[in-house]
Amino acid sequence: MNTQDETYPGIEDTLSADRFGTYLGWAKGNRNRAVELYTLNAHLSESLYIPLHMLEVALRNRIHQVMSKAHGEAWFDMPEHQLNAVQTDMLEKARADLKEKGKEETPGRMVASLTFGYWTAMLGREYENLWQTTLKDIAKREDGKGLRRKDFTKSLGAIRTLRNRLAHHETVLHWDLPKHYGNVLQMINWLSPVAAKWCTACSRFDALYPPEGIALASPEAE
Q1: FRET label pair with 84: which of 37, 124, 168, 197, CA 20 to 30 Å apart?
Q2: Phi-psi category of 8—alpha, beta or left, where left has phi over 0 and alpha has psi -120 to 50?
Q3: pLDDT mean for each 10 residues of the chain (222 residues)
Q4: Would you say 26 and 217 are in contact if contact means Cβ atoms under 8 Å apart?
């Protein structure tokens, strides 16, 4: 990445003054540095897509696998597995989306249509008993030992927020990205070591993130 010779005149009009103003503030008004920071944010966001993509796919598939084995493929329609109020709405929306696309409703398509929020809700406090009996089987530590629900979910809230920020093209430079990236990889490794190995090989995050860190004039800790 080298933007030192590129000033991209007028890019503020495209990005909006508020959006670009954040980077100008971090660059102490140095416009070229602001463009560099914006470019770095875009590149790092792109590099985080692969591990976040794999985490979501691995999480939903592992939950579906263990729940199907214990309760059948239509487990998500059972009232005892709808303990979080938002899940009912998410199920209805997934069904509506399939119908709008003219696709037949199948368990596999429902699983793919449900959002990340649905799957993280399945790991909430309401499901502690289900974790103890069934969901604990979705993941295990590197040494083969089991995980407590809290151990598995302690970084999930921040990861979900990070995912949503990236989906809306928001800045993430002020986040501790190496920490969050490491947490994402750890969760994937607990779900599927081979998937974690693939992510490590494919993601450019380590190559893109400056080893000296990112200097911002007014960093915001998260």
Answers
A1: 168
A2: left
A3: 63 88 94 94 96 97 98 96 93 96 96 95 96 97 93 94 94 96 97 96 96 82 44
A4: yes
**Angle at which helices 31-71 and 193-202 cross, to 10°:** 160
DSSP letter at 211 equals T
3-state DSSP assignment of residue 27: coil
Three-state secondary-structure class, residue 174: coil
Name the pTM for this structure: 0.90
The span from the CA of 140 to the CA of 31, in Å, is 48
CA–CA distance from 87 to each of 30, 93, 127, 160 (Å)?
47, 10, 13, 16
Q: Among residues 63, 187, 81, 78, which one has the least CA distance to residue 136?
A: 63
Contact criterion met (CB below 8 Å) for 51 and 205: yes
Output the DSSP codes for 75-105: GGGSGGG--SHHHHHHHHHHHHHHHHTTPPP
Contact predicate 7/17, CB 8 Å: no
> Which phi and psi (to 5°) does residue 68 adopt?
-65, -40
Nearest CA among 25, 50, 47 for reference residue 37: 25
What is the C-alpha to C-alpha distance for residues 196 and 54, in angstroms, rounded to an integer? 8
Closest to 69 in 3D by CA, of 140, 123, 145, 134: 134
Residue type, 197: K
